[in-house]
Design brief:
This protein is an alpha+beta fold and 231 residues long. The chain has 4 helices and 9 strands, in the order H-E-H-E-E-E-H-E-E-E-H-E-E. Strands 1, 5, 6, 8 and 9 form a 5-stranded antiparallel sheet that branches. The longest helix has 73 residues. It is elongated and about 130 Å long.
Length: 231
C-alpha cells in the first residue's frame, strides 16, 4: 500500500504539473486569438458603415438633383425644352482643352419641317472667350415643303440660364423667329438643310457669376438651360 500510494502520488503530481501549464498557455492563446477576431470584426463594421454613409450621401444628392429637375420641368408652358447639363466641371474642362460646343438633342415644337437644338460653349467664343459662356439656338430645315405650308410664320421664343436657388432671377434672352427668315438672326451662309446658328449671345453670362454658389446657376455640378416658345 505504501509503495502503491507513493506511485499514485507521484503520478498525480506529474499530471497536475503537466496539465496546469498547458491550460494557462491555451488560455492565453485563446484570448489572443479572440482579440484578433474582434479587431477584424471592428474593421469590417467600420468599412460597412463608411460604405452605407457614402451610399446615403449619394442618394441624398440624387434626390436633390431630381427635385430641381422637376422644378424646372414644372416651369414649362406649351412648347419648351429643359436641358440639364450634369458633370458641369468635367464639361467645362473639356471645353477649355478642346474648345468644343455642348449640343442638346434636336427639339420639335410645332413649326413643321424645322427642328432646333441648343448650343452652349463652356469656354466662350469671340470676344467672350475665356470669360463668358456663349449660348445659342440652332435651326435645321428637314422638310422645305412642310415649312412653307406651316400656318405659324412667326413666333416669340426665349432661351434661359435657370437659377436653382429661390429668389434669384434667371438669365433670359427673348427673340422673334420667323420661318421666312425676316428676323434679326445671326448671319449664316450655310444651307437650310444644315444646322445654322440663329439667336443667342457670345457673352451670355460671366463664368464668375455662373459658378457662384450663392447665385445657384450651377448646383451639385449641374447647369440647367431652357428653351421656351412664348407666343
Amino acid at each position: 500500500m505504501q509503495e502503491h500510494s507513493k506511485t499514485c502520488h507521484s503520478v498525480g503530481d506529474k499530471i497536475e504539473k503537466s496539465i496546469v501549464p498547458q491550460g494557462k498557455g491555451a488560455s492565453k492563446k485563446k484570448a489572443k486569438s479572440g482579440n484578433i477576431n474582434t479587431d477584424a470584426e471592428i474593421k469590417e463594421l467600420r468599412k460597412l458603415l463608411n460604405a452605407a454613409m457614402k451610399e446615403i450621401a449619394e442618394l441624398k444628392l440624387s434626390q436633390s438633383v431630381q427635385e430641381r429637375k422637376t422644378a424646372a420641368l414644372l416651369r414649362r408652358t406649351g412648347a419648351s425644352y429643359v436641358w440639364c447639363l450634369e458633370s458641369y466641371r468635367i464639361l467645362r474642362r473639356h471645353a477649355i482643352s478642346r474648345r468644343d460646343d455642348c449640343l442638346s438633342e434636336p427639339i420639335f415644337f410645332g413649326l413643321a419641317g424645322c427642328k432646333f437644338r441648343l448650343q452652349a460653349n463652356l469656354y466662350g467664343i469671340g470676344c467672350g472667350a475665356g470669360t463668358h459662356m456663349a449660348f445659342f439656338v440652332q435651326s435645321k430645315v428637314v422638310d422645305v415643303a412642310r415649312m412653307d405650308s406651316c400656318c405659324v410664320k412667326k413666333t416669340r421664343c426665349l432661351i434661359r440660364v435657370a437659377s436653382q436657388r429661390e429668389g434669384v432671377d434667371h438669365v433670359d434672352l427673348t427673340f422673334d423667329f420667323s420661318v421666312s427668315g425676316q428676323d434679326r438672326r445671326r448671319s449664316t451662309s450655310r444651307p437650310l438643310h444644315m444646322w445654322n446658328t440663329l439667336f443667342g449671345r457670345e457673352k451670355f453670362i460671366l463664368f464668375e457669376e455662373l459658378e457662384d454658389q450663392r447665385v445657384g446657376y450651377v448646383v451639385d455640378d449641374m447647369l440647367i438651360l431652357e428653351f421656351h416658345v412664348i407666343d
